[in-house]
Amino acid sequence: MPDNDRAAGPMEGDWSSVEYMERQSRLDVLRFITCGSVDDGKSTLIGRLLYDSKLIFEDQLQTLELDSFKFGTQGSNIDLALLVDGLAAEREQGISIDVAYRYFSTERRKFIVADTPGHEQYTRNMATGASTASLAVILVDALNGVLTQTRRHSCICALMGIRHVVLAVNKMDAVDWDKGVFETILAEYMPFADEIGLANVYPTPLSALEGDNVMRTSENMPWYAGPTLIDHLEGIDVTADAGESPFRLPVQWVNRPHSGFRGYTGTVASGSVRVRDEIVVLPGGRTAAVERVIVGDADMEDATFGEAATLLLDREIDVSRGDVIAPAAQRPETSDQFQTRLLWMSDEHLLPGRSYLLKTANRYVGASVSDLKGRLDVNSLSRESAKVLELNEIGICNISLDAPIAFDPYKENHTTGSFVLIDRVTHETVASGMIDFGLRRAQNIHWQAVEVDKSVRMSQKRQTPCIIWFTGLSGSGKSTVANALERLLFIAGRHTYLLDGDNVRHGLNRDLGFTDADRVENIRRVGEVAKLMLDAGLIVLVSFISPFRAERDMVRRMVGEEEFVEIFVDTPLEVCESRDPKGLYSRARAGEIKNFTGLDSPYEEPENPEVRLDTTTLSPEEAARRIMEFVSENSD
């Protein structure tokens, strides 16, 4: 059993509970995470901190004793890990699955600690905990040494910009408190930490189970003269960097309770702002002076890092949610293209070219990975070539946005330099990312105004241009119906062009194969070409299998809802396979063609196509006339 000689609680000591609460209210808060591989002792360490900081009520202690008998892994002793492992599945398996947040305090500081899971499949949960942490306690089991997951979690800490790391070499009791074991682990880990950019690493040998070097100095390791873990946590200053950085306030809310008040509210992400400071609002670039600073419900002379503030300006300018307010003389950059580092957190692969939503601070904007430059091998730290990113992989990517945003490199500002990617269909957060720098080429490219524009070309051709997008399985009849429709449009005097999947792969897309990543890029390129033809005033017929809903929706967003007509040639697989006009199904069945849509590669049917065609009952000419009628009825 752990010893019960715990320090007296706030009601038992030399000060009253009121004095204790007042004293606690003046303490700052440190958010930190514990991470590392499975069974390194993360939950036990947090349990020890909670137990020794006297934050367990008597009924909790009784429950802990009962649960230790039922679920514990420490025999007849109390299993401190059960204070943190709250899910039934965690208690039964003796592992952490979800991120568990716990609060404790000492006389010098308050703490919020996230116990993050060690299993590889829950790496995204670890990244979630790291995203708000200022310090990481990375545990290493003295018996097992530095493992792959130790390196992966260390890379994520570096990726998230965590500047302070305690390397807690745990279970020293299991190796007879051997100094040599500790030094061997340091010799392996510290050069690795230098390579990935973890500058402030504080090695500490300890035993979370026995409490050695956690909150009290160990008598079993007289060879270690450094501070205990709690000494590290109480003494580290993690606020200086953000407080000294230039002022940044991402606008969360335009506050207008009445016509005489217009304020811009948000949390100060870095630096400070004072009344009369000259500021700029980005990405718009309009400037003004700060007239009032309100913190809470009181007017103040300034607002500093971490405070929620409302700014009133000396004149009305256009400010929206997601804009960034900054000093006019110390502006963040603005761009719509970046080099970034991504931690991929979805079971579905990252596919370059696919459209996602990017959220940074309080702003959402469309985004796609324009270039996957490689993925990071967490063991060798080398960059490997890659066409996709899989779950828990870290990639170096170029990202293009639909609109420019204000940003700082992540190493300079965690708030304005970080983002998440969100799947447009499922709304799942699929990646967390950090901006390295804006791409210079984005600053060199500007839209050239022209006199003969789309409206002029429409008028000359006397037609309303649109994209008519045919999608369906191979053999469904897409190309046949598209050809029939173009004949009808030509006879009617319309100006058209037909982009056919096979034909385009002879030229523009001849370099692409049939992997998911190549299919996404295939449709992205075709969508861009179709958009140019739309701008030329043409009616563009596009006949592609285009198996993924996300890419079809991407083209729809690219050109606008009113100019995109989706035609689903809804022909059952067995009918398509019986037709097999090009012999592709028989070859795919024989194993000669891999990733064949409908067989070993998925086809995602449209949910709400403008026109659905059943070519088992309609002839190509009948199908074409039906589309012609729809286009005529819905055009100006």
Task: Explain what the structure shows.
By secondary structure, the chain is an alpha/beta fold. The chain has four domains: 17-238, P-loop containing nucleotide triphosphate hydrolases (Rossmann fold), CATH 3.40.50; 242-327, Elongation Factor Tu (Ef-tu), domain 3, CATH 2.40.30.10; 334-442, Translation factors (Elongation Factor Tu (Ef-tu), domain 3, Beta Barrel); 454-634, P-loop containing nucleotide triphosphate hydrolases (Rossmann fold, 3-Layer(aba) Sandwich), CATH 3.40.50.300. The protein is 28% helix and 27% strand. It contains 18 helices and 28 strands. The strands form five sheets. Strands 7, 8, 9, 11, 12, 13, 15 and 16 form an eight-stranded antiparallel beta sheet that branches. The chain has a six-stranded mixed beta sheet with strand order 2-3-1-4-5-6, with helices on both faces. The chain has a six-stranded antiparallel barrel with strand order 17-21-19-18-22-23. Helix 12 crosses helix 18 and helix 14 (516-535) runs parallel beside helix 15 (549-559). It starts with 16 loop residues before the first helix and ends with a helix.
Structural class by SSE content: alpha/beta
CATH H-level superfamily of the largest domain: P-loop containing nucleotide triphosphate hydrolases
CATH architecture of the largest domain: 3-Layer(aba) Sandwich
Structural shape: globular
**In angstroms, what is the radius of gyration?**
30 Å
Give the C-level CATH assignment of the largest domain.
Alpha Beta
What is the number of helices?
18
Distance between the termini: 81 Å
